[in-house]
Amino acid sequence: MPNSRDDSTPEVEALDRVDTPEGAGPTRRGFLRIAGLAGVAASLAPQIARANGRIGYHAADLSDERLTDLYRMILRIRWHERTMADKMLSDPDYRGYNHFYAGQEAVATGVCAALRNDGPFDQIDVVYSTHRPSGHALAKGVDMRAMCAENDFRATGLNNGYGAEMHLSDPSVGFIGADGMVGPGPVLAQGSAFSFRARGSDQVSVVFGGDGTYATPHFHSTLNNAKLLDLPFIYVLENNLYHQYAHYSYSSPHYDIADAARAYGIPAEVVDGQDVMQVYNAAYEAVERARAGEGPTFIEAKTYRYYNHWGAPGAEVGQLGAFGYDPLAISSFRPEREVRNWMQRDPVDICRATLVDWGVLNAEQAAQIEEDIRAEVDEAFAWAMEQPLCNPEDGVKNVFATGEVPARQFG
Amino acid sequence: MPNSRDDSTPEVEALDRVDTPEGAGPTRRGFLRIAGLAGVAASLAPQIARANGRIGYHAADLSDERLTDLYRMILRIRWHERTMADKMLSDPDYRGYNHFYAGQEAVATGVCAALRNDGPFDQIDVVYSTHRPSGHALAKGVDMRAMCAENDFRATGLNNGYGAEMHLSDPSVGFIGADGMVGPGPVLAQGSAFSFRARGSDQVSVVFGGDGTYATPHFHSTLNNAKLLDLPFIYVLENNLYHQYAHYSYSSPHYDIADAARAYGIPAEVVDGQDVMQVYNAAYEAVERARAGEGPTFIEAKTYRYYNHWGAPGAEVGQLGAFGYDPLAISSFRPEREVRNWMQRDPVDICRATLVDWGVLNAEQAAQIEEDIRAEVDEAFAWAMEQPLCNPEDGVKNVFATGEVPARQFG
Amino acid sequence: MTEKSWIYAVLEAAQHEMREDPAMTWIFELTPPVASNPDMPVINLETEFGRRRVVNTGIDENWMASTVIGAGLAGSRSVTYIPYQGAAMPFQVIQNHAGKLRHMTGGVASIPVVFIIELTGQTPGFAGQHSDYELDTAYAHIAGVRTVVPSTPYDAKGMMTAAIRSPDPVVFLNPAGLRTLSGEVPDEPYEVPLDKAAVRVEGSDLTIVSSGPGMPVSLEAAERLAEEGINAEVIDLRVLKEMDTETLVTSVSKTRKLLTVDQSYYTLCPGAEVIARVAENVEGVRYKRVAFPDAPPPASPEMFLWMRPDAENVAEAARQLVG
Amino acid sequence: MTEKSWIYAVLEAAQHEMREDPAMTWIFELTPPVASNPDMPVINLETEFGRRRVVNTGIDENWMASTVIGAGLAGSRSVTYIPYQGAAMPFQVIQNHAGKLRHMTGGVASIPVVFIIELTGQTPGFAGQHSDYELDTAYAHIAGVRTVVPSTPYDAKGMMTAAIRSPDPVVFLNPAGLRTLSGEVPDEPYEVPLDKAAVRVEGSDLTIVSSGPGMPVSLEAAERLAEEGINAEVIDLRVLKEMDTETLVTSVSKTRKLLTVDQSYYTLCPGAEVIARVAENVEGVRYKRVAFPDAPPPASPEMFLWMRPDAENVAEAARQLVG
Ligand SMILES: Cc1ncc(C[n+]2csc(CCOP(=O)(O)OP(=O)(O)O)c2C)c(N)n1
Ligand SMILES: Cc1ncc(C[n+]2csc(CCOP(=O)(O)OP(=O)(O)O)c2C)c(N)n1
Ligand SMILES: [Mg+2]
Ligand SMILES: [Mg+2]
C-alpha cells in the first residue's frame, strides 16, 4: 500500500471494482499472477528501481484489449522516437528535433491509461507535459501524423507550425501541452485542478515533470497549494537521474524525491517506471483519490532516458540509444555503462513479457503488433514530410484571439 | 535534544565550554536552576507554546552582565515600540510608522546575543530582517537615535532618510537590513552564507522571517540550497500565527513549520519565542553548528505580536498592545482574547522573573534598569525630532555608487 | 448611475460576470474582494461565491498568476488581484506563458484571464519597493497580453468587464493612487474597449499624453494652462498594448507639439513609445517628456514629492514647449 | 592579441578577476564556465577555483541571482550566468532588490555583482520561449542596475572586466546569437566603459542605432548602402542604462535622419527610447524604426526568418528614410 495513507473503507471498495469500461473479462488479480509478474521483472533486471512491492494490482483487472493497448502505446512511442532519431541522423532535409523519451515510455503510457482521454473539453482529464513531450502526447491520444508534421514545422501540423516539439498542444484530447520551461508547468497544472474543484467537476489534472523540477521554486508552490486546497491533481515526477547533464543529487538532498512530497502530507508513491503495470496501478489510485475529492497524489517513477538530453548526439542510425560523447555536456556526462545497465530493463520487454506470461498475447502476436506499429509510424513521418511549409506572413497571426499584429521588421 | 540531529562528540564538547567572553562567573547549569526557571515560565502561562523542553542550558552559563544585557535589550525594544506607538497616536507632527515588534522581543534578543556583532565587516555575523525590523535592528546593535531619525525621514538618520523603517540597514554592525518584500530575504541571506563558505570565513548569516515566508516559493530555494551546500545559515522563523490578517493555517499544512525544514534534513527546533533563554540556547547551538561547517539550522519561535499588522490602529496612548478594530483587516481579524492570552506570557516579565529567580537582579535593580532604558528611548526620539529634513535634490543621488541621475520631472 | 468608488466599480463588474458564469474564479492575497458604497449593497465576492471559487492562501503571487492561467487553459475564466508588493513576482509566467501560449500552439490555447496588477507610486514615506510605479513598461513590452491602465472609475468598470469577457489574457494595471477616486458609474454592465485611447480634453496648442496616475496631474495642468490661454489636448492612453497610434497621430498632426507625462521611470517609460510612434508618423513636431527620474523613490517625503511629476511640472513643461 | 571566441573572451576576464580576488564567486546552471581557444590554455573556472567558489545546483535562476546579491551584500564580488531559458526568472529580485538597495539604504548597501543574462532570438525552430529576444527592455527600464549589451568579443571582455570591478550591479546581456563571433582580443585585462556608445561606422546621410544582435545586420546593411552611395553612421548603443544620449544627439544633429534597429519587440524596444531622446533634443529629424513585430517568435523557420529584421530590411528602411 502507499506509504502515506491508510487503507480506509471507500478505497478498499474501490479496489474491488473491475476497471474495464468493457465490463467483461475475468479478474486477473491473485497471488500467483502477481508472483509471476514479479518473477518476470526480476529476471530481467539485476538492479530494480526502488519501488514499494505492489505489482499487478489494478492492471491485472484490465481487459485483454486494454492490456494490449498498453503494449501498443509503448511501441508507438518507442518507434516514433527511433524513427525520428534515425531521420535526424540520416535525412539532411529533415528539420525536426526532439528531446527523446525512449526508455521512459512506460511512465506516460501507464499514467494516461488511467485517465479520461475523450469526451467534451469540460469532462476530459488534462495533462501538462514538459520539454520532452512526444511520449506524453502520444499516450494522451494526440494524432501522430499531426504531431510529426508539427515537429517538422508544417503548416498543417498539430499547431500549424507555430510551436513544434516543445509546444505541442491538443486540448481536444486533454493534452494541454508541452512546456519548454522547467518550473512553471506544475503550477499551471495545479491551476487547472483548482478550476475543476471550483466548478465542481470530477476532472483530474496531471503534470509530468522531470527530477529537474524538484529544485525549482515552483515545486513548493505547487505541492503546498495542492495540499492546502485538496486539489484533484497528480504530480508524476519522472526521475531519470539527470537534469540535463547534472545528476539529481546535485539538486536534491533526497534519495527519493517522493519524500519531499510526503512532507506536505501528500500521498506519495515510488514506482518502477520501467514497468507499465506498476505505473498504471499508482496512477489508478491517484485518479480515484482525486475524483473522490481527496486531494493530490505524487508519483515518483524511477526511469532513464536512452538518448542524450537533446537531439541525437552519440546515436547511430538503426541503433537504440545514444552512447557516444555529447558535446553539449561539455565537462560532465553520464557513463555509457549506466545506459547499458538501464537498457537491460526495457519497458517494451517488460510489458511484452508480462502480457505473454499472463496469456494475453503470444510471441508471434506481439511481433506482429510491433510490425504494424512500425508501419503506422513510417506512414506518419511520410505523411508529415509531404505537408506544406508555413506561410511567412502568418507569423503575426494568433497573437490575440482575433486579428493580427502589424509587421514591424520593415521599418 | 534537537529532533533531527544526534549528539555527536564535538558538540558535547562545545556544550562544556563556558560562553563568557569575560571568562568569569560560575556556571549556572544544573537541574535545580532549570527546574526553577521552568517553574517561572509555567506559573506565568496557562498555554505554553509547544517547545522541546530544553530550557536554560547555554544561557545558564552566561555572566551576570550578559544576562542583564538580555533584559536591557528586551526593554529597549519594548520601550522603543511603545514610545513610537504613542507618538504616532498623539503627535500630529510625527511622520514615522512601524510594523510593531512588541511581544516578539525575546526572539531578536536571544538570537542576536548568540552572534558576533562587532569587528571588521569581513568577520561579523550578518542579519537579514523583514518588514518588521525595529527589534532585529536594535538587537543587532543599530544605534537607536540614528534609527529613530531614519524612521522620521531625517537627513541624518541611519540611512539619510532614503529608507525609513522597511529599509533600515547598518552593515557596520552586520545588520544588512530590513526588507519590505516577503520571500526574497531568506534567499538573499543564504547568499551571504554562500559567500562565507566560498571564502572560508567562519561568519554566520541569519535571516528572520515570519510565518508568511513559509508559503513563498523562496522558502524551498532557500532551504534546499542551504542544505545541498551545507551553508553557515540560520533561518529564524517567527511564527506569530498571522501573515497580515490570515492565520498561518491558511498558508501552511504544517502545525510546526519546522517540520517543513526537517524534510530537507536540516536540524530544526521549535522554541518558546517568549522566553529569551530558550531562544538563546537554540541560536547558540545553531551558531556553533554553522561555524563548525556543519550546515544550516532552522529555528521556529512561537510568538505573537501585540499590535496589529501595521501602525497603531486599535491602540491607545500609554497602553501596551492593540485590541480595537483594525480597518485594514477588512473582513477578518484576530480575536481580542487571543491577544490578551498571549500577553499573559510577556517576554519582559519572563526574562525579569528568570533573572530575579537566578539571583542576577533584584526587583529594585530591575525597575531601575527599566527607568534608565525609558530615559534612553525618550532621549533618542527627542534627538531624532531635532534632526534636519532631507534636501529634495538628494533623491537623485545614491542610485549608483558615484554621481547622480538626471532630474526628469521637469521635462 | 451612482457615484461609486474605484474598487466598488471594479468589483461590481466582477460580481456580475461571476453571477453569469459559475465556473469563474477570483484569487486574492491581502485584500479580500469586499467593497461598500453609500446606498449600495456591500459586495463580498468571498461570501457570495464561496471559498472554492474565491480563494486566498499564502504569500505567493507567482502561484496566483499561474493558477489563473491554469484555470483559463482548462476553460475557466479567472481573475487574480496581485497587490503592488508582489507586482513583479508573476512577470515571468505572464511574459513567457500567458503571453505566448496562444501563438506557440498555433491558436489552440486560450487564456481568458485577468491579472489585476496593482501599481503604487502614490505614497511618500514607504520608499523603493512600496512607492515605485515602474512595471507598466515591463508588462506593456511583452507580446500576447493586452495591458491596460484605466484612470477613472467608469473606465475601470468598463475595462474590467471587457477584460473578463476577452478571450485574451489581460494585464489590468490598477494604480493604487487612484483608489480614492470616485465617479458616476452605471449599475448595469458595459464594456470600454481594450484598444482605444480617449481624448479627455480637446485643444490645439499642444498634446499632452499620459495614463493612469499621470492623468489627474495632466488634467490639472491643462486647467492651469487654459487659464493662461494655452489650450492643451489631453489624451488618456488607457491601453499600453496595443497602443492606439491613430488617436495620437491625429492629435499631434494638429498640435505639432507633444508632451508626455509618466509616473514611471524616464528610460523606456510609456511616453518614449508615444513619442517614437508619433515621430515615425508626423514630421516637424516638438517634443518634451516628463517622468520620474531613473531613481528608486526615496522614503523622505521631501525627496519623493520633488521627484514625482506634479501638475506644476507638467504645466511648466507645456509652457516651454509652446513658448 | 589573439583571435578569440566570444565566450573565451568573457571567461578570460572572469578568470583574471577571480585570480586577483579569492573571495569572488561564479554561479552557473547548464553551462560550465569552460572554454577553449586554439593555441590558448583551456579555461575551466570550476576546476581552477573549486566547487565552493564555482557552483551549480538545481534549476533555479532566481536562486542564482539572489545568491550573488547576498554574496555581494556580504562583500564578495560575484557573477552568475543565467541561461536564456531562465532569463526572466530573476527579474523581480534584480528589479526590486539589486537595483534599489543602495538607494533605499542611503548608500550603505553595495552590490558589486554581475548578472550575465543570456538572451536568444537567434535560432529558428525553437519558438516562443526559446527564440525570443525581448528582456532587454525590462532590464533597461529599471533603476539602479547598469544594463549593457556588447556586440563584439573585444567589448564583451572589456565590459565584463569593467562590470566585475564596478561597485554597481550590472546586467550583462549576452546575446546567444553572437556566441559564434570571434575577434582580436588582448590577453591582458582592460576595461570598456559601462556608459558609452560606440560609433562603429561614420557617415553623414543617416544614423543607424542598434545594439547586441542587431549590430551585425546593421553593419551589413551599412555596407550595402555604402555601395549604393548612402553613407550611414552606425552607432552601437552597448549600454542601455545609462544610455549615452550625447553620442546619439551628436550624430543625429549631423544626419537629421534616425533609423533604429532592434531584435526586441517593437513596442517599447530600446529604439523607442533612442528616438524619444533624440526627439527631445534635436528638431526636424525624420525617423524610422525596425524591430521584431509584437508577436512571439514562431517555430516555423519560414515565419520566424520573415519576422526577424535582417540586413535587407534595414537597408530598405534606410533607403526610404533618405529617399
Ligand atoms: C527555467 C528553465 N531553466 C533552464 C532550462 C533549460 N533546461 C531544459 S531541460 C533542462 C533539464 C530538465 O531536467 P529534468 O526536469 O530532469 O527533465 P529531463 O530532461 O530529464 O526529462 C534544463 C535545465 C529551462 N528549460 N527552463
Ligand atoms: C512579495 C510580497 N507580497 C506581499 C507583501 C505584503 N505583506 C507585507 S507583510 C505581509 C505579511 C507577512 O507575514 P509574516 O511573514 O508572518 O510576518 P509578520 O507580519 O507576521 O511579522 C504581507 C503579505 C509583501 N510585503 N511582499
Ligand atoms: Mg531528468
Ligand atoms: Mg506572521
Count of discrete domains of chain C: 2
Determine and state the CATH class of the largest domain in chain C. Answer: Alpha Beta
Question: What is the strand content of chain C?
Answer: 15-25%
Mean pLDDT of chain C: 97
Helix content of chain A: 25-40%
Structural category of chain A is alpha/beta
CATH topology annotation of the largest domain in chain A: Rossmann fold
Going by helix content, strand content and strand pairing, the class of chain C is: alpha/beta
The CATH topology of the largest domain in chain C corresponds to: Rossmann fold
Domain count of chain A, please report it. Answer: 2
Give the CA-CA distance, first to last residue of chain A. Answer: 65 Å
Identify the bound ligands. thiamine diphosphate, magnesium ion
- Which chains share the greatest interface? C-D, 52 and 51 residues
Detailed description of the structure:
- The complex is a heterotetramer, with two copies of chain A (411 residues) and two copies of chain C (323 residues).
- Chain A is an alpha/beta fold and 411 residues long.
- Chain A folds into two domains: 1-42, no CATH class; 59-389, Thiamin diphosphate (ThDP)-binding fold, Pyr/PP domains (Rossmann fold, 3-Layer(aba) Sandwich).
- Helix content of chain A is 39%, strand content 8%.
- Chain A has 13 helices and eight strands.
- In chain A, strands 2-1-3-4-8-7 form a six-stranded parallel β-sheet, sandwiched between helices. In chain A, strands 5-6 form a two-stranded antiparallel sheet.
- Chain C is α/β, with parallel strands linked by helices and 323 residues long.
- Chain C has two domains: 2-185, Rossmann fold; 198-322, Rossmann fold (3-Layer(aba) Sandwich).
- Helices cover 37% and strands 22% of the residues of chain C.
- Chain C has twelve helices and 16 strands.
- A seven-stranded mixed β-sheet of chain C has the order 5-2-6-7-9-8-14, with helices on both faces.
- In chain C, 72% of the residues are buried.
- The interface between C and D is large, with 52 and 51 residues.
- The structure holds thiamine diphosphate (2 copies) and magnesium ion (2 copies).
- One thiamine diphosphate sits between chains A (131-132, 180-183, 210-213, 240, 242-244, 309) and D (30, 59, 83, 85-86, 89).
